[in-house]
Amino acid sequence: MASAYDASAEDGAGTSALSSPAARIAVMRRAHGEKLKVCGALEEIADALPDRVDRLMCVSVASTLLPMLRNIHRYEEEVIFPAYAAATADLQCVERLKAEHVEDECFADEVTEALMTIGHGSAVANPEALGFMLRGFFEMMRRHVAFERDHILPAIGGAPETARTNGAGRQ
């Protein structure tokens, strides 16, 4: 089964995800929505610590977080970053973003492990540390989305979204 972020996938209208700036931007907007939804769930979990944690939500987020990030990162690296580099010649930025992907996935792995442990019934041993970890992760992910919306998407052919979202999409 192809991921929604498979560079060879079609966008639902029979168009390759590589074929037009509009198709690429539509995929990225969908990816941003998914990331921000996960950020909201992580924030709910952090706010519920230590005694009101929804264990099913922990397992659900843990099960989807890393595969989602890997799929989105692969799409960005195969489709979005080459388009950005072609539009801007800013190879240093592309290399930095690729390095951030590695760091993001390592951090997501740690978050996943902690959420799975709680989701399967373990007590929250250190709620302050876990809350700090979750908040650090979702704030980092929101900043990443904001950067892409403000800089990457406009460079590859999308209008800046800051006026339209006015922070609402950045939660």
Topology overview:
Layout: H1 21-48, H2 55-88, H3 91-119, H4 127-155, H5 162-165
Helix pairs in contact: 1-2, 1-4, 2-3, 3-4
Major sheet description = none
Number of helices: 5
* Relative strand content: under 5%
Radius of gyration: 17 Å
Unreliable residue stretches? 162-171
Order of helices and strands: HHHHH
Q: Classify the secondary structure makeup into a structural class.
A: mainly alpha
Helix proportion of residues, in percent?
Answer: over 70%
Envelope shape: elongated
Count of folded domains: 1
Mean pLDDT: 88
In short:
It contains five helices and no strands. The protein is an all-alpha fold.
What does this structure look like?
The protein is mainly alpha-helical and 171 residues long. The chain has one domain. It contains five helices and no strands. Helix 1 runs antiparallel to helix 2. The two termini are 32 Å apart. The C terminus is likely disordered.
